[in-house]
Amino acid sequence: MSCLKFSLVAYFILSAGLVFSEDKVEKFTSNDCLMSKFDTTIERGELWGLMKRVLTIKKDVCQISVFNKKKFFETDYKIDICREPIHMKVTVRGSLDVHKRSGKCESKTQSEFCDFWSQLKSELEDQGLIFAQGEREKISSSHGKVFCTYLLLNKYLGEGVLFSKYTDTENIYLEKLKTSPKKIKMPKNETSPVLKEDTSPQAPQGRF
């Protein structure tokens, strides 16, 4: 009986260790994400199932394609995260346009690039990260593929980071620190010296 109990305990410990090891191996790194090749599609019904909202992502190392269908509108984004200048190719209603990044986007109305980047980021969040199945840390899951794409594009389009297959991969999990402007201490206004009136009694001037 004691041998049976020992065997059961050993089995559960070993099983827990294997599960932990698999989870640890599955969690993708920045380089895993960059060098990956995959495709995934997230669909959900709208208007009582009469219409479908579709988000399709295809990735081949540096080449990323995101197709979004919302009601009657279709938008196709093509981004090469290893190519400069930082840009994206956007096809709307069969018309292809190239939009280059000129700086950090403070608002979506700042430029056409910022407008399309805001739309793409919103679709990845609202349609992809919220509705994709699986765990986001596992690149084998649909959720993980969307999360990997989201992190890479946030670095490339959002922060202007250029990737390369031949150099160390930028840490996609870290965002650039926002540094607040340093406060400059202004010198205190110097007060003019106060002249004190001499109130000491003066000796009378004598007559000669």
Structure description:
This protein has helices at 2-26, 30-35, 112-129, 142-159; strands at 37-46, 51-60, 63-70, 73-80, 87-92, 95-100. It has a six-stranded antiparallel beta sheet, with helices on one face. It has a domain at 25-159. It has 208 residues and is α+β, with helices and mostly antiparallel strands. Residues 8-23, 179-184 and 190-195 have low confidence and may be disordered.
Give the secondary structure arrangement, pairings included:
Blueprint: H1 2-26, H2 30-35, E1 37-46, E2 51-60, E3 63-70, E4 73-80, E5 87-92, E6 95-100, H3 112-129, H4 142-159
Antiparallel strand pairs: 1-2, 2-3, 3-4, 4-5, 5-6
Helix pairs in contact: 3-4
How is the largest sheet built, in terms of strand order? 1-2-3-4-5-6
Q: Biggest β-sheet, characterized?
A: 6 strands, antiparallel
Helix-strand string: HHEEEEEEHH
Radius of gyration: 32 Å
Globally, the shape reads globular
Can I get a quick summary?
The chain has 208 residues and is an alpha+beta fold. The chain is 32% helix and 23% strand. It has four helices and six strands; from the N terminus they run H-H-E-E-E-E-E-E-H-H.
